Amino acid sequence: MTPSTAEHPQMSVEDFEDLARHAPETVTLEFINGKLEVKPVPDGDHVTIFMWLLRQCMQARPDLDLHPEQGLKVGTYRNGRARPDGALGPVGHFAGQGEWADPAGVLMVVEVTSHDSGTDRRDRVEKRDGYAEAGLPVYLLIDRDADAVVVHSAPRDGRYAEITAYAYGATVTLPAPLGITLETEGLKDYSL
Fold first, then answer.
1. What's the confidence (pLDDT) of residue 192?
2. For residue 5, what pLDDT is reported?
3. What does the pLDDT average to over 7-17?
4. Is residue 158, in this structure, part of any structural domain at all?
5. What is the rounded end-to-end Cα distance, in angstroms, of the chain?
């Protein structure tokens, strides 16, 4: 059997969207690199970390909204479908775009790692690469396994040219076009 890749996907994007549309509310589906993915249900610390980030973004940039779980068309030729934990864009940016929005105009996507066996491949590799291929300016990974905030920026040729990791507790200034400064000391409270 041929392994699933972007060149040999498990199904068409249209079939995936139909499947995702009819999935029960307890399941979040994604289509990354030609492969169907089931996104884990977030735990309490995961949600709390997202809310921490939401508050910081809203205080620093009230002209932007951090949308939880907004579906985006990502990857080569926009043939992937991802639901980042957060997508930061101008207020009202996603109005009228439907379930799977074009990533143009999104300034940052955010993932908070889950404690499951697929998080390494999914959040640290496949989604990162899909976000870079889509040209998303900043990918912020809050890595709960490493107690680190990892900033990916400057997408070029399907990869992020700049990747900087900061330990929890550091002051992190997100690069242009954001200019948001995150005080990460509070993340230590949600570390295992």
1. 65
2. 59
3. 75
4. yes
5. 40
* Domain-located, residue 9: no
pLDDT averaged over every residue in the chain = 87
How many distinct structural domains can be found in the chain? Answer: 1
Amino acid present at 109: V
Burial 140-157 (b: 16+ CB within 10 A, else e): bbbbbeebbbbbbbebee
CB 124 within 8 A of CB 142: no
CATH number of the domain that residue 140 is part of: 3.90.1570.10
pTM of the model: 0.82
SS3 sequence of the chain: CCCCCCCCCCCCHHHHHHHHHHCCCCCEEEEECCEEEEECCCCHHHHHHHHHHHHHHHHHCCCEEEEECCEEEECHHHCEEECCCEEEEECCCCCCCCCEECCCCCCEEEEECCCCCCHHHHHHHHHHHHHHHCCCCEEEEEECCCCEEEEEEEEECCEEEEEEEEECCCEEECCCCCCCEEECHHHHHHCC
Q: Residues 69-112: pLDDT tens digits?
A: 999 999 776 788 999 999 999 999 999 998 899 999 999 999 99
Question: Domain limits at 136?
Answer: 42-190
pLDDT band at residue 136 under the 50/70/90 scheme: very high
> Tokens 């680190």 identify what position?
148
| Residue 82 covered by a domain | yes
